[in-house]
Each structure stands twice: as C-alpha cells, then as structure tokens.
Amino acid sequence: MPTDATAAPPPRIAVLVPCHNEAVAIGGVVAGFRHALPQARVFVYDNNSSDMTREAACAAGARVGREALQGKGHVVRRMFADIEADIYVLVDGDGTYDPGAAPAMIRLLREEQLDMVTGLRVTREAAAYRPGHQLGNRLLTGLAGLIFGRRVSDMLSGYRVFSRRFVKSFPALATGFETETEFTVHALELRMPVGEVATAYASRPPGSTSKLRTLRDGMRILSTILGLLQRERPLPFFGTLGGLLLLVSLGFFLPVLSTYLESGLVPRLPTFVASVAFLLLSFLSLAVGLVLETVTRGRQETKRIAYLAIPAPPPLEAAAAEDTAPEMGPVLKT
C-alpha cells in the first residue's frame, strides 16, 4: 500500500444529469447522489424546461448548466464536452434510478479497469417498467447484439458509469433517446471492457411525467441501429442489399428466359432490360460495400488510436476496496 505522501489523488467524479421539466424529481436525484457520492460534483444541465427545474437543482446543491438544442443527445454531447473528470456517472433526472448503486458501479469500473458500466434495471413495479417497454428493450438489445456483439443486457438503460477515455472519444451524434444505443455501439465497436451492475428501478414520483414515447422513440432507436449498421458494417449491409437486388433481377429474368427457350424470341424486352438494370445495381451495391468496408476499417483504427491516447481509469487497490466499498449487487463483466 502506498503511504500518504505517495498516494495518488482520488479520482475526480462527476455526476451528469440531463433534464427537461423534472422539477418534481430533480431535487431528490441531486440529494441522493450527493449522499451516495459525497466526493463527486453533481451537474444538472437544463434542456429548455418550462417549470422550476433549474431552481430546484440549484436549491439541492447541483451545478446547473443549460443546453438550448432540444433532445437528450444534444445535452449529453454538451456535458461530455464541458465537464472534466476521471469518472462520469450519467443518470436520468426522473428519480427512477437508485443513487445507492453508484459506488458499486464505480468500484467495478476501477477494479476491473472498465470503460463503461451499465445499471441493469431490476424492478417488480409494473408501472416503472411497462411490459411494452421491456419487450421493446429486449428486441432492440437483441438486434444490436446480433449485429455488434452480445455483451450488454440492457442497451437502453439511462444509468451508466464511464471512464474518461470513453467520454472524450465518444462522437455523440444522436439527438434524442437513441443516444443510449450509441453508447453501446461505441463500446462494442472499439472492443472496450464493459460490465453491468443490477440496480433497482422505481416508478417516477407523483406529478412527474415521462418524456418517452414508446412507438416514436422505438422507431428512432431502430433507425439508429440500422444507420449504425450501414456505417459500421457496410459490407454486410450493402452485400445483403445486393443479394436482394439480385433476387429481383432473377425474378424479372426467369420468365423471359422461359419464353426464349420455348420460342427463341424475347417479346418482353422491357422486362429483360429491368432484369439487367437490377443486376447492375446488385453488383454496384456489392462494390460500394467493399469500398466502404475499407474506409470504415481505417476510421475504426483512427478512433481506436484516439481512445488509447487517453489515460485508463485510475485503478483501485483491492485491499482498500474491501475495506471501504459497500456491498455490490449482482455483477456481469465482459
């Protein structure tokens, strides 16, 4: 164990809370994290609230900022750019996540030198995590896992702990709730070490209303996954598209071929031309996929180098962790 004279300074911890019209809940969220992480700074960024969110956050002791562009993704981008820390805790301001799980999530991040720890939502309250939301989350998480790798069980959780090198290498292109999908894909694409900690998930406090719209935001998340597939896996994407175009070409061509074999004539010339056009589009799609695959590989290498240029999370001495850290919930590491 190092002596007090040589001990490394404790890591800087920042709690980031993006908010829009959460005056009812935000005071309790700030107080909860100030109690669970007394050494951390709590930042609340208001996103054009029309209620008393800013005043409630200030009264609870948070440092309050503002982002004018509407949408959670815009707020996350601004917070990641503005705030300097070694460890970042990102949580929604609706009071549904348990601040008491944050020390365990941070402990896991430091002990295992991880870059992202996700709060795996566990609840028995039907109103907190509606069956439709659970089903949508499983479907979207399963689709993302099929494409990018099955290493995250709750892709849409709004409770995360990040290392500095995750935050400062994250491109933050999303504008709304699809930003959680970007977190997951960014970690999986760069093969970052990630983990999960089970955490309680509760209903919103009375008087608080959800900003999530199941169908609208579900479609936006699905669109984000498909967009990421096109950008990050261009060869499978355009190769599949090329295969579909080839099937369409064959669908046009086979009747023409049958007629030709029977009569020696090609009376359906427009159909034959259409089959040739779809065949050319099929080859073009495959060529585009091959070219973009090379470009994507180079871009991924550049992102990886930028990620590695940032120091790893500060380690946690095992003995110190055993003496000072609270008990952890069920943990998954990958």
From TrEMBL:
Protein's name according to its UniProt entry: Glycosyl transferase
Keywords: Membrane, Transferase, Transmembrane, Transmembrane helix
Pfam families: Glycos_transf_2
TM segment ranges: 235-257, 269-292
PANTHER family associated with the record: RFBJ PROTEIN, UNDECAPRENYL-PHOSPHATE 4-DEOXY-4-FORMAMIDO-L-ARABINOSE TRANSFERASE-RELATED
Domain Glycosyltransferase 2-like: 15-167
Taxonomic superkingdom: Bacteria
GO molecular function: transferase activity
